[in-house]
Automatic annotation (TrEMBL):
Annotated compartments: Cell membrane
Region named Disordered: 1-23, 601-641
Protein name: ABC transporter ATP-binding protein
InterPro entries (alphabetical): AAA+_ATPase, ABC1_TM_dom, ABC1_TM_sf, ABC_transporter-like_ATP-bd, ABC_transporter-like_CS, P-loop_NTPase, Type_1_exporter
Natural source organism: Isoptericola hypogeus
Major location (coarse): membrane
Domain of life: Bacteria
Biased composition (Low complexity): 605-628
Pfam families documented for this protein: ABC_membrane (PF00664), ABC_tran (PF00005)
Gene Ontology molecular function, alphabetical: ATP binding
């Protein structure tokens, strides 16, 4: 939704053309003016779409996890704000005593007591404000931290194909910047309570001084709220536009830096800078829209305030002339009035800033609405002494937003003691099957089981401990060799790390590094060659020593000798565990006990599984084998169950 598209209907229903009343020309003109202030003056629609609008009540309901248990601090903050407002009321009342008891009679004798009281009140107010400041910061920082933690934990549960569709830069903006909007919502509630308390206290004091005059003053209040209500919707719209555009700009910068070498190789620096500048200009346009609105709002409110003050001053002079008020009384009345205007304005401003904060919070909630595919089971099954039998039964999978399924009706069985290769053309669905085998995604049809138990009935931790997946593009972290390898099993000893490195064929290269296991690999492992990076990821997978090893293209980037060494290792590992390797590499296919070929998302029946070749008839049976010539040590037919 662009910033000039009307948002969903607000709280008020306006009479339409057929309605009895239509807004006056002046109001319509003001509304059109305000809308033109908000209208974005930037090209393009930006990379990031607007977050869906969430009703305010739902915004608060959804923040309950962060707020629960924080009630006492919130109450303390409200009490502190009310107490400070009470002290201010007494301070103003003391001013009347100064005028009427000291200045008018020119008598200094009460001054000492009044001054002492002033100092005591100032000290108390200072102390309470100090506590208020610290407690506010504590509350807002902890709520922000909790929300960030929740967002990150949620993102960790989002299937990576869904997460990949989000722009990383924008997600980071939501996680860091937009989360802070919640503070405004929270402290807005506290400030609102304080403003309300001051309104009641000052209003009460004014009623005591002169109730008729006070009633006139109160007429100003609805005018403030009317003005802030007029502005709030527009502030929200402009805040949404600002945040959306900032997310787009960060996303462009992040993507451009992540693909820096690509940009340099193809000489696309100018285009990237232009793209960044375009998004940057959109941020500027949105910020200027906000600035125009921010600058207009106080002018309107100041005019309303001035009109109210002038009316009260006129009537106050009349009350003074009639003897209903003393001079001190009138001065104090006017002081209360100017003080009363403050909470009125604060409440109005609050409507406006809460509307803007809701815009930021909606963007955070949108992240929390991303589907999580990988739920923990409510009643997990415990698996002891895992054998490592894996069955894929009638599995299908369609990527989020994709038109066609990547897999349909796939059956496969893996048993310890056998090494299975997944073959097939690029894009046929091998990596997708790898994802299902490691429960990185769930199949909506059929199931994947480990020792007969559906992976969805096992704790994710159990799955991760027993099935290790090496992804095709396994990231290398900007950390030491040791930290990179032990990422899969924190606490592994150096000997175990060396053993895993040896299995991956990288031990000699690491030994040659001056810092050995402590050598830092740089961002995305840039201090390594492509093949070495692949081997770091392989060592990480092998360190887990799990019952099932699922490797996607593990020989990519390895020279022939290294590939042979790795295959020998895999063969050895396959003696007592299930190993499946997705690969195009003929060496891998030759080494496998069985080759399962995938074509356009389905397992191709192998010639060997023809009726004559005693196929596995069950849907859970191993579905296919490659043409005989590719076979190595093992057979091409049915797999033991
Ligand atoms: N994240 C994704 N979102 C949408 N579609 C995807 C995604 N990943 C893969 N696909 C699609 O799913 C199909 C299978 O892809 P997959 O990566 O499983 O193939 P593959 O056999 O592993 O290919 P390769 O040998 O090139 O790695 C392809 O058509 C691909 O375009």
């Amino acid at each position: 939704m662009s910033a000039d598209t009307p948002e969903r209907p607000g709280r008020r229903v306006r009479p339409g053309r057929s309605g009895a009343r239509r807004p006056g020309t002046a109001v319509r003109a003001l509304r059109a003016r305000l809308d033109s202030l908000v209208r974005p003056r930037a090209e393009g629609t930006g990379l990031i779409a607007d977050a869906p609008t969430v009703p305010f009540r739902d915004v608060l309901r959804r923040l309950r996890p962060e707020l629960s248990g924080r009630g006492p601090v919130l109450t303390l903050l409200v009490l502190l704000t009310v107490a400070v407002a009470g002290i201010e009321t007494v301070e103003i009342w003391l001013f009347q005593r100064v005028v009427d008891d000291v200045l008018v009679p020119v008598d200094v004798s009460p001054l000492l007591a009044i001054a002492g009281l002033y100092v005591a009140l100032a000290l108390l107010s200072g102390l309470l404000s100090w506590v208020d400041e610290v407690a506010s910061a504590w509350l807002s920082e902890h709520v922000s931290l909790d929300l960030r933690r929740r967002v990150l934990a949620h993102l960790h549960k989002v299937p990576s194909d869904v997460a990949d569709q989000q722009r990383a830069g924008d997600v980071l903006t939501r996680l860091t910047r937009d989360v802070r909007s919640v503070e405004t919502l929270l402290l807005g509630a506290v400030d609102g309570a304080g403003a309300l308390a001051r309104l009641l206290l000052y209003g009460g004091a004014m009623m005591l001084l002169d109730w008729q005059l006070a009633l006139v003053a109160f007429v100003v209040a609805p005018l403030f709220w009317w003005a802030s209500d007029r502005f709030a919707r527009r502030f929200k719209k402009v805040a949404k536009e600002k945040r959306r555009r900032t997310g787009s700009m960060t996303a462009v910068a992040e993507e451009s830096l992540a693909a820096l070498s690509l940009v340099q190789v193809h000489g696309r620096e100018r285009e990237e800078q232009e793209k960044f500048e375009r998004e940057g200009r959109a941020v500027v346009a949105a910020e200027l829209g906000a600035a125009r609105l921010r600058a207009t709002y106080p002018i309107v409110v100041d005019l309303l305030e001035l009109a109210g003050l002038l009316a009260v001053i006129g009537l106050g002079i009349w009350a003074l002339a009639e003897g209903r008020l003393t001079l001190g009384g009138l001065l104090v009345f006017l002081t209360y009035l100017s003080q009363l205007v403050r909470p009125m304005r604060e409440l109005g401003d609050l409507v406006v800033s809460v509307a803007s904060a809701v815009a930021g919070t909606e963007r955070v909630l949108e992240v929390l609405d991303l589907p999580t595919g990988l739920a923990e089971p409510a009643d997990p099954v415990a698996l002891d002494d895992v054998e490592g039998r894996v069955r894929v039964n009638d599995a299908s999978f369609t990527y989020h937003g994709a038109a066609a399924p990547a897999l349909t009706g796939v059956n496969l069985t893996l048993v310890p003691g056998r090494m299975v290769a997944l073959a097939g053309a690029s894009g046929s669905g091998k990596s997708t099957l790898v994802r299902l085998l490691g429960r990185l995604s769930d199949t909506p049809t059929g199931s994947v089981t480990l020792d007969g138990v559906d992976l969805r009935d096992l704790r994710l931790q159990t799955v991760r401990e027993n099935i290790t997946v090496l992804l095709q593009e396994a990231p290398v972290l900007d950390a030491s060799v040791r930290d990179n390898v032990t990422f899969s099993r924190p606490g592994a000893t150096d000997d175990e790390v060396w053993e895993a490195l040896a299995m991956a064929g990288l031990d000699d290269a690491v030994r040659a590094l001056p810092a050995g296991l402590d050598a830092r690999l740089g961002q995305r492992g840039r201090s390594l060659s492509g093949g070495q990076r692949q081997r770091i990821a392989l060592a990480r997978a092998l360190l887990v020593d799990s019952r099932v090893l699922v490797l996607d293209e593990p020989t990519t980037g390895l020279d022939a000798a290294a590939a042979q060494r790795l295959l020998a290792t895999l063969r050895r590992l396959a003696d007592d565990r299930s190993v499946v390797v997705a690969s195009h590499d003929p060496a891998v296919l030759a080494e496998a006990d069985e080759v399962v070929t995938i074509e356009r998302g389905t397992v191709v029946p192998s010639p060997a599984s023809s009726p004559d070749a005693s196929p596995d008839p069950s849907p859970a049976g191993s579905a296919a084998a490659a043409p005989g010539g590719a076979q190595g040590a093992g057979s091409t037919t049915g797999v033991a169950r």
